[in-house]
Every structure is written in C-alpha cells, then in structure tokens.
Amino acid sequence: MTPENPLSGLSLFVPIYNEAAILSENTDRLYKYLSRLQIPFEILLGSNGSTDATPEIGPKLAAAHRNVKFFHLSQRGPGLAFAEALRGCRYDAFICQDADLSIHLEFIPKAFDLLENHDAVIGAKQTTQRRARMRIGVSDFFILCTNLLLGLSYRDYSIGAKAYRTEAIRPFIGKVDRHTFYTQQMIWQLQRIGGRIIEIPVECDDWRKSRFNLIHEGFYRFYKLFELWLRMQARHE
Ligand SMILES: Nc1nc2c(ncn2[C@@H]2O[C@H](COP(=O)(O)OP(=O)(O)O)[C@@H](O)[C@H]2O)c(=O)[nH]1
Ligand SMILES: [Mg+2]
Fold first, then answer.
1. Nearest CA residue ID for atom 21, ligand 1
2. Which residues make Cβ contacts (< 8 Å) with residue 105, sequence separation at least 6?
3. Pairing with 20, which of 46, 99, 130, 149 sits 20 to 30 Å away (CA)?
4. What number of other Cβ atoms are within 10 A of residue 214's Cβ?
5. Would you say 119 and 164 are in contact if contact means Cβ atoms under 8 Å apart?
6. Pocket residues for ligand 1 (CB within 6 Å)?
7. Closest protein CA for atom 10 of ligand 1
8. Residue 183: which of 207, 211, 155 has the closest Cα?
9. Closest residue (by CA) to atom 28 of ligand 1?
10. From the CA of 4, how far away is ligand 1's center (Å)?
11. Three-class secondary structure of residue 49 per DSSP
C-alpha cells in the first residue's frame, strides 16, 4: 500500500440479508484485517428485509466498535442499502464486499491503492465457485449482453468486489437501482462521463447457496438492462 495515498480512508460496505449465522464472526475478521492496514476505515453493515436475528446482532456489533455502523431498512433490495451507505459514508473510497467474505480480502488494499488514480475498480472473480452450469451460463450470457448493449467491456458486474471513489458516484445516488442492477448502472454512468475504470482479477471461494432467487434475478437483470438500453436509444434519436 502506498503510504502517500491521498484518499482520506475507506468505507467498507457490506450488504446483509439474513446473515445472522456469520455476521459476528465475519465482521470481526474484517475488522481485524482492516485494522492491520493502517488506513482510517469504517465498516457499514447495511441490512434490509432480513427476517432472521440480523437486526438484533447488527446494533451489538456497532456498539462494540466505534467504526462499525449498522442500519436496517424494512424493504428488501441491496441497491437500497448501497444508496443508504453511500449517502452516509465518511471516506473517499467506497468498497463493497459480500458478507460471506467469499472474495479474498486482498481486494480491499489493492482497490484502495488503485482508487488513487481511478474512479472505479472492478474485481473480476477468478472463481472457485460451485455453481450450477446453468447459472454460470446465464451469468456469462448476461455479461455478454451488458457489454454489447451498454458498450462496456468488463467481465464481472456482481455486487461484491467493486470499489468506487465516493465523490465519483455520489452524483448518481438518486438513480441507484433498488435491487441488483446498480453495478452496471454505476459503471455505465462513470464510463459515459469519461471516468477511469480498471478491472482486476480477484480470488473467490464461493460455496454457499445464493441469497437471491436466481430465476427472479435473471429476469430482473435482463429487464433492467433492456430498459436502460432503450433509454440510451431514445437519447440518441
Ligand atoms: N442489503 C441487502 N443485502 C442483500 C440482499 N440480498 C442479498 N444480500 C447480500 O448480498 C451479498 C451477496 O449475496 P450472495 O447470496 O452471496 O450472492 P451471490 O453469491 O452473488 O449469489 C451478501 O452479503 C448478501 O447478504 C438484500 O436484499 N439486501
Ligand atoms: Mg455469494
């Protein structure tokens, strides 16, 4: 890490949905890891729609550490939590990580360094994912369609392992998709205004069942992609 990095610190956003089983342990792991980096930091645990003990555990974690914050919104949708965290974050680097910490934590200091000269860092998973072939196929097809329709050229638009310069994406806060389409939105918006975006490989071990309903997820993302593409066409006319 470059000690002269001028960014004030990092706000680590973790979207949370029914993560009571791992929330304390993983927050602790994350906290210890970030403390060792010697960068000012805060951990923003953003839950919404959780129906397990997450809303009871979160405030206890926040009470135990000055720089851990927890909020709970009633309506489900990670984009709503992303927008809320972005609104309230205090540092220049806004880094997103999944609650299961399936993405190796080295992404965090690497992204922090890269944000010195970039507006977004995309972590592209080099997966050790035990995922149904069908899911991988749909996901690859979605990435291909995103790149073709939006004129992008990246390999991973999932919500985890993405980092942004806070000031670069704050102007788009009112447009954040309430569900899972916000990564594409942020990257597309940044590219349109000439933002500096870099993609790096990240190691990932994701063995657990997804929190998302994958059929709903698939339809939703294609619908949002098509909707955005139509808006682009209308703008060009
Ligand atoms: N705030 C919030 N987080 C969510 C929601 N749904 C899933 N998540 C979180 O999003 C992250 C990714 O979920 P995961 O099941 O690992 O997704 P996958 O591996 O991409 O299929 C985890 O931290 C989840 O707890 C939601 O509705 N709201
Ligand atoms: Mg996962």
1. 210
2. 30, 33, 97
3. 130
4. 15
5. yes
6. 15-17, 19, 46-49, 76-78, 81, 98-100, 158, 160, 206, 210-212
7. 15
8. 155
9. 78
10. 34
11. coil
Read off the pLDDT of residues 113-126 as tens digits, 9 standing for 90 and up. 999 999 999 999 87
Structurally, what CATH architecture does the domain formed by 10-133+155-210 represent?
A: Alpha-Beta Complex (3.90)
**Are 211 and 18 a contacting pair, CB within 8 Å?**
yes
Q: What atom of ligand 1 comes closest to residue 209's alpha carbon? A: 15
Q: Taking 70 as the threshold, does the pLDDT of residue 190 lie above it?
A: yes
pLDDT in tens, 35-85: 999 999 999 999 998 999 999 999 999 999 999 999 999 999 999 999 999
CA distance 201 to 180: 21
**From ligand 1's centre to the CA of 19, what distance in Å?**
9
Report the interhelical angle of 133-150 vs 214-236 (nearest 10°): 10
CA of residue 104 to ligand 2 center, whole Å: 12
- At position 97, the amino acid (one-letter code) is Q
